[in-house]
């Protein structure tokens, strides 16, 4: 059981890279402007699809948060330049009650559904099968919710 827990923790660490490991972060005014400005500096020509940013309440606190999808970025003619066989980077931002946003996680995933389970909104993230300790072709589906500024895994299959 202990070994299984350690492996699960390692898999989760590979899938989700916590932002600054709960270190004090400076708040940013708007993740859309923040990320678009970054890519406009790193790309000669940066173009953003309509799904680059999604605004939704990801932690069930009634405040609209944000998720960015780097598959919706075209940098110098290359769509999703940071995407690979493991998926594309998604950044998850919470909005502070005082205003401003902070990043809580980056995940390399194929995509997600945001659904209601037992009264709370949760992410069902589709990712490489190895994150569910599998070697088949079917994507792993990890269900997570945001609690206290962190992803909490509910299930994976």
Task: Give a topology summary.
Layout: H1 2-15, E1 16-18, H2 31-42, E2 46-48, E3 53-56, E4 65-69, E5 73-75, E6 78-79, E7 88-95, E8 101-109, E9 111-117, E10 120-127, E11 140-147, E12 150-156
Antiparallel strand pairs: 1-8, 2-5, 3-4, 4-7, 5-6, 7-8, 9-10, 10-11, 11-12
3D structure, described in words:
- The structure is a single chain.
- With 157 residues, the protein is an alpha+beta fold.
- Helix content is 17%, strand content 43%.
- The strands form 3 sheets. A 5-stranded antiparallel β-sheet has the order 1-8-7-4-3. A 4-stranded antiparallel β-sheet has the order 9-10-11-12, with no helix packed on it.
- A hairpin with a 2-residue loop joins strand 11 and strand 12.
- The longest helix has 14 residues.
- The two termini are 18 Å apart.
- The N terminus is likely disordered.
Structure described in brief:
This protein is about 15% helix and about 45% strand.
Number of extended strands? 12
N→C terminal distance: 18 Å
Helical amount: 10-25%
The biggest beta sheet is recorded as: 5 strands, antiparallel
What is the string of SSEs from the N terminus onward? HEHEEEEEEEEEEE
Q: Output the number of helix runs.
A: 2
Query: Nearest-angstrom radius of gyration?
Result: 16 Å
**What topology, given as strand order, has the largest sheet?**
1-8-7-4-3
Shape: flat
Provide mean pLDDT, rounded: 86
What structural class do you assign from the helix and strand content? alpha+beta
Report the portion of residues in β strands: 35-45%
User: What are the segments in which pLDDT stays under 50 over at least 5 consecutive residues?
Assistant: 1-14, 17-22
What assembly state would you assign to the polypeptide chains in this entry?
A: single chain
């Amino acid at each position: 059981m202990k070994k299984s827990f350690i492996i699960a923790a390692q898999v989760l660490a590979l899938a989700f890279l916590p932002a600054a490991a709960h270190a004090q972060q400076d708040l940013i005014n708007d993740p859309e402007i923040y990320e678009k400005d970054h890519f406009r500096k790193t790309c000669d020509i940066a173009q953003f699809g309509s799904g680059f940013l999604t605004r939704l309440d990801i932690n069930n606190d009634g405040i609209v948060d944000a998720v960015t999808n780097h598959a919706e970025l075209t940098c110098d003619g290359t769509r999703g330049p940071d995407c690979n066989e493991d998926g594309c980077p998604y950044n998850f931002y919470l909005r502070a009650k005082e205003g401003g946003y902070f990043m809580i996680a980056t995940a390399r995933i194929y995509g997600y559904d945001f659904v209601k389970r037992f009264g709370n909104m949760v992410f069902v993230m589709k990712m490489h099968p190895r994150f569910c300790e599998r070697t088949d072709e079917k994507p792993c589906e990890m269900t997570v919710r945001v609690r206290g500024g962190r992803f909490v895994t509910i299930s994976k299959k």
